[in-house]
Amino acid sequence: MKGEARRSVPDRDQDEKVRNAAPPPRATTSPARWAWEWTKSILIAFALFLVIRTFLVEAFRIPTGSMERTLLVGDFLLVNKAVYGAQLPGTAVRLPAFDRPRRGDIVVFTPPHEPGKNYVKRLIGLPGDTLFMRDKVLYVNGQAQIEPFVTHSDPHGDIFVPGMMWQREHLVGDADGATYRPTRDNWGPLLVSTGHFFVLGDNRDDSEDSRYWGFVDKAAIKGQPLFIYYSFDPNTMRPFPWLTEIRWGRIGGTVH
Predict the structure, then answer these.
(1) Which residue has the higher pLDDT, 36 or 243?
(2) Do residues 71 and 227 touch, judged by C-beta distance below 8 A?
(3) What is the pTM of this model?
(4) What's the average model confidence in pLDDT over 66-83?
(5) d(CA 184, CA 162)
(6) In what order do the strands lie in the sheet with 57-61?
(7) Active site residues
(8) Domain coordinates of the chain in residue numbers?
(9) Where does 141-227 have alpha helices with state H?
(10) 47-250, which class in CATH?
(11) How far apart are CA 217 and CA 111, in angstroms?
């Protein structure tokens, strides 16, 4: 057509190449920046883990049979550390508690004779309670306790443990400290001192507890088990018991 300049074939080919050209490549991330992003993610995850473990929940493994049948060797627990008020690391300051320790609670605590370890027992005596045991029957403030969770692996025996003589300092009533000779199944009456608790294992004949090493300070109580998140039977000759001897029926069970 007149007045219209014709475009040459090379020009049309050049336009087609521009339309079909790929978008410019994205800027690549430098190795240093990539390493920093990964490091930052790991640090954040680790910080969250420390916060959760310090103030909220912590894993705990049952190493002995002192709480059988309630808890078995090989049970793994998640412990609620916030319920009684988590302690700030390196200080005596505790966060506000959601509840207070109650008689019958199962608690995780640091025992007075082994400050580097965690124990789990049932809380039996509160501050101001009077406790004694006669022929395996526990009395709290003069009342015999009905304890369906208790087991006795040695129903007829009784033993004297010299370490139990600490109890003489806390005797009340007509007990004579000069002639006092406590045994595993017969002891007391004892007055639980202020700010302390008395704990016993549910497997009463095979439990190292307050009868032998004394009261538990309130500040030493770390928390209360929430549930069993894993369990296996370690008392087996089969290889890899953590895989072959899983107690599926106990996983997810609450602790009470």
Answers:
(1) 243
(2) no
(3) 0.77
(4) 92
(5) 11
(6) 57-61, 75-80, 221-231, 106-109, 119-125, 196-200, 216-217
(7) 66, 121
(8) 47-250
(9) 210-213
(10) mainly beta
(11) 8
